[in-house]
Amino acid sequence: MEKKSTGGGQIGAELKGKYLLVTPAKNEEQNLPEVSKAVIEQELKPELWIIVDDGSTDETPSILEGLRSNWPWIRSIRLPPRPRDITFHYSYVCKQGFDYALEYCRENNIEFEYIGLLDADTVLEENYFGKLLAEFKKDNSLGIVSGGVYYDTNGKLSLEVTAKNLPRGTGRIWKKECFFETGGYQVEPSPDSISNIKALLRGWRLMQYTEAVQVQKRKTSAANGLWNGYLKNGWMAYYLGKNYFMTLLNVFHLSLKSPYYTGIAYCWGYFGSVIKRENKIQDPEVRAYYRNQGFGGLLSRISSNFDQNSRNVKEKKQ
C-alpha cells in the first residue's frame, strides 16, 4: 500500500519521516543531472528540495529550470555571481537555502521532521535517506547523521575513511529539534564542524552510517584544486581554534596518503595563519570545546583513526 507525500511523491508505507533538502550548486552542469536523478528516484523523497544556484555561468540554470517544471517539490533560488569559496561564502549560500526552505514551509504549511544538506557533486543510492531516517527512529538522542562518502574507481566503490562518529558535511541530515537547538546553519567556515560541536555539547549523538552510500564525484575540498582546498582547510583549523598537537596529527595523517602534498598545504594554511595572527572564531562554545580537549581525548581519537586507517579503504563492488 502506498501513500502520497506532500512534496516528494509516492513512498512505501513502511518508510516514515518527512524531510527538507538543501543543495548549493555552482557551475555543476556535469554533475547536477546525475545528482538530481538520484534524489528524484529516492524511495523516500523530500517534501521540498531547494537548490541554491550560486551565480552559475554554465548550463546549471537551464538544468534547474527543467527540474522545477517537472517536479513541483523542487525549487531553486539564484544568487549573484561570486568566486567559489569553501569558507564563509559556502556557508552563506547554504544558509540562504535553509532560510528560504523554512520560510516556504511556513507559508505553505509543509510539515517536516528532518532537515538535510546535499552537495551538488554527490550521488545517492536509492534508499539513502530511508536508511538514515531509520537510524533516527532507533535512537531519540540521535541529532545528526550522514552516510559514508565513497569514490568510484573503475567500477569499485572505496570509502573515504574518517571518524565514524562524525557525520560528513554532504549527505547529512539533522533532526529538526537538533537543528534549531544548535542555532541552525552558521555562516562560518567549517559549519558542519560547528554544528557537530554544538550538538555534542547539548547531549545529541552524532553518527556516520557507512552502510548508506553516497558517491562523491570529486575529492573532498577539490572544487578549486586540492592544494587550495587543503590550504583553506588548514586556515579553518586555525580559525576554529584547533591546537598545535591536533593540527600536526592531521598533517601527519594527510601526508601518509596520496596525494601527499595535501599535508603540506594544510600545514601551511594553519601555521601561516599563526604567524600572521589572523582572527579566530568568536563563538565561545567552539573556542572552549577545542581549548578543553585534553591529551587523553586526543589519544583516544588517534587510536580510533589509526585503527580505521590501518584497514586503508573499504572497497565494494558498485
From TrEMBL:
Alphabetical UniProt keywords: Glycosyltransferase, Transferase
One Pfam family, short name: Glycos_transf_2
Glycosyltransferase 2-like domain mapped to chain residues: 22-170
Superkingdom of the source species: Archaea
One GO MF term attached to the UniProt entry: glycosyltransferase activity
UniProt protein name: Glycosyltransferase
Organism this protein belongs to: Methanosarcina barkeri (strain Fusaro / DSM 804)
